[in-house]
Amino acid sequence: MRPRRWVSVLVCAAAASAAVTACGSGGASQTADGRTELTIATFNEFGYEGLFSEYEAAHPDIKITQRKTGQGGPHHQNLFTKLGAGSGLADVEAVEEGYLSQVMAKASQFNDLKEIGPKDLSTNRWLDWKTAAATTRDGKLIGYGTDIGPLAMCYRKDLFDKAGLPSDPEAVKALFATWESYFAAGEQFTARSGGVAWFDNAAQIFNAMHNQHEVGYFDKSDNLVVETNPDIRKDWDAVTSAVAKGQSAKLVAFSPEWNTGFKTGAFATKTCPSWMLGVIESQAGPENKGKWAVTDAFPDGGGNWGGSYLTVPRQGKNTTKAAELAAWLTAPEQQIKAFQAKGTFPSQVDALKSPALLEQTNPYFGDVKAGALFAAQAGKVAAAQYKGPADGQLQENVFSPALQSVEQGKNAGEAWLTAVEGAEKAAK
Amino acid sequence: MTVVLTPVDRGRAEEARPRPPRRHRLSALDTKVSPYLFVAPFFVLFAAIGLFPLLYTAYVSLFDWELGADDPAFIGVENYTTLVGDEQFWNALFNTFSIFVLSSGPQIIIAVLLAALLNANLRARTAWRMGVLLPYVASLVALTIIFGTLFGPQYGLVNEVLTAVGIGPVDWQADTFGSHLAIASMVNWRWTGYNALIVLAAMQAIPREVHEAALVDGAGALRRFFSITLPMLRPTIIFVVVTSTIGGLQIFTEPKLFDPSGGSGGGAENQYQTVVLYLYQSAFQSFDLGYASAIAWVLFLVVIVIAGLNFLLTRRLASTSSEVRR
């Protein structure tokens, strides 16, 4: 049965009776003066505004229209709804890393950019792990990488000093060498901190640990391996025992209380992707300037949190031209301009060597050479973990709440059983 | 309109009948069809945005329908049988009723008392009456965010006050009853004034003679309130109960925004996940449209059953109250 077809017939009939004409094959993609109109849908700030006019000047037959959504959530909800409806998407759609597993599960609805994109474009343009995450098992490339969020460690120098820990960016590296040394330092810290916690919440630590493993929640044949993958249980035990020892500030990420936590100094370390520096600066405020520092170390290697891709959905009209635009936008020269405009950290190998990036400093974090620091961290990211179709859901709706329940006082063993059960339900 | 007066012999054979003039036919068409055209917009709109979604939801609920899936599989009533055995659904139903009772109960009592106060001889009466309606005018989202901050487990004002008076902090997020209380307080804040105005209108419709007669008989203010005002308010109170039932069973925004993670889980362990929130989570986080549709239909039936019970209750109570009057 294919009920989808007659939905659109009925919806169109209903819409027609209300005198709306948007059904069937969609609107014309030609402007009045005969130029081809390309639409591109982004969210937050990609830093592309100045680039569009540059592209239009170089390609007189193209007109670019941007559909910009303020937040990632509504943007992706719109993306999935219109994928389901079969029409209404922009020619180029941005996809954030957190939603990538869901997009990869619907890879058949996106163009293989190796096939329709410019032939002279090599995937060596990007960091290997960035491209690998957007490549399907049968080798199709779904998206061109835009930016990334390489992880470093941010910490409160003043609180480290008070608790008798080394606070110099070089000296703290030993504390952040492995997760074991990280939790051990946390124990030392909380013993003398007078109630200040070591990290903001358990889920933030757990997710960073989890993403470092070669195999995550699913194996490469999409089988759920939550119970059989020993790494997951090991991370769980390490994080929950740290919670039991009072190392967590129990502040849900991005909640108002979490924001307050930055102001009051409720925790001493934060897993820090490049874009987190801006978040810390705005939440901790000028009164805490000089207290936060960042170092180019991350327990057990590196990691990535955030960053996006440009995709070309199959339902578009001008897929070849759209792919050409996406390829141009994600070239190192353009991404460096986007970085200068809005601070999006580039995923292109050449862009990471650009002087404009390497010379960038951050005054809030003691004039640290943030660009060079995160470029170094980007090189430490291990191979991309294979993500199953329900991966994002497992992280957001299963493991994060389960860890939160442990922070609220639930027994860690019981919470683990709840998480396993929830994972099975989400994966079916 | 003189043509209409021309007699037409209906008994004569069809072919012998002259074709009526064009204007005649048009006006006949006009009288027959145009009334339907006048009422059509409502029915077309109702069919498109009321009836069609309702029926189509029922249809979708019979499929294992993932958003964007190419070929949803027909599975009959399996979504419904899964739902009956789904602990999370029963938990959500319990939460919904719990929040409903915690909000509607106090709300109606306070609304009646508030209406009685507003019915008294007050200075600047209109200003007071407008005043109680202000929370209803405020933006629901802004209100929920402010209440969420007030009920913050670690830095919330409510907990600071509770600590100051020696009760100690309550984890409004972790505690099931605590979270229901916090959400119910948002609902009460918003709707009490609105309901008070409806009750006030009914109160003013009570004939003054009844009150005067009681006064002559020597009844005090309290006695008059309980023996005259309350019984005569019954139908209005039932109306308020029915509307707040329908609203209360569909509560969504408050618990959704109360979750600090911004998800639809309604707390780390679904402590305050309501039925509509579970529906939303199934549809737009798990993308399981078939299951979400089944939840929607079951909720629809629950609302009908409860509303039906209320209707029966209304009829009974309304007739007993009229007997009291006689």
UniProtKB/TrEMBL annotation, chain A:
<feature type="signal peptide">
    <location>
        <begin position="1"/>
        <end position="22"/>
    </location>
</feature>
<keyword id="KW-0732">Signal</keyword>
<dbReference type="InterPro" id="IPR006059">
    <property type="entry name" value="SBP"/>
</dbReference>
<protein>
    <submittedName>
        <fullName>Carbohydrate ABC transporter substrate-binding protein</fullName>
    </submittedName>
</protein>
<dbReference type="InterPro" id="IPR050490">
    <property type="entry name" value="Bact_solute-bd_prot1"/>
</dbReference>
<dbReference type="Pfam" id="PF01547">
    <property type="entry name" value="SBP_bac_1"/>
</dbReference>
TrEMBL record, chain B:
<feature type="domain" description="ABC transmembrane type-1">
    <location>
        <begin position="93"/>
        <end position="310"/>
    </location>
</feature>
<keyword id="KW-0812">Transmembrane</keyword>
<feature type="transmembrane region" description="Helical">
    <location>
        <begin position="132"/>
        <end position="152"/>
    </location>
</feature>
<dbReference type="GO" id="GO:0055085">
    <property type="term" value="P:transmembrane transport"/>
</dbReference>
<feature type="transmembrane region" description="Helical">
    <location>
        <begin position="189"/>
        <end position="206"/>
    </location>
</feature>
<dbReference type="InterPro" id="IPR000515">
    <property type="entry name" value="MetI-like"/>
</dbReference>
<feature type="transmembrane region" description="Helical">
    <location>
        <begin position="33"/>
        <end position="56"/>
    </location>
</feature>
<keyword id="KW-1133">Transmembrane helix</keyword>
<comment type="similarity">
    <text>Belongs to the binding-protein-dependent transport system permease family.</text>
</comment>
<keyword id="KW-0813">Transport</keyword>
<feature type="transmembrane region" description="Helical">
    <location>
        <begin position="232"/>
        <end position="252"/>
    </location>
</feature>
<keyword id="KW-0472">Membrane</keyword>
<protein>
    <submittedName>
        <fullName>Sugar ABC transporter permease</fullName>
    </submittedName>
</protein>
<dbReference type="Pfam" id="PF00528">
    <property type="entry name" value="BPD_transp_1"/>
</dbReference>
<dbReference type="GO" id="GO:0005886">
    <property type="term" value="C:plasma membrane"/>
</dbReference>
<feature type="transmembrane region" description="Helical">
    <location>
        <begin position="97"/>
        <end position="120"/>
    </location>
</feature>
<feature type="region of interest" description="Disordered">
    <location>
        <begin position="1"/>
        <end position="21"/>
    </location>
</feature>
<dbReference type="InterPro" id="IPR051393">
    <property type="entry name" value="ABC_transporter_permease"/>
</dbReference>
<keyword id="KW-1003">Cell membrane</keyword>
<feature type="compositionally biased region" description="Basic and acidic residues">
    <location>
        <begin position="9"/>
        <end position="18"/>
    </location>
</feature>
<feature type="transmembrane region" description="Helical">
    <location>
        <begin position="289"/>
        <end position="313"/>
    </location>
</feature>
<dbReference type="InterPro" id="IPR035906">
    <property type="entry name" value="MetI-like_sf"/>
</dbReference>
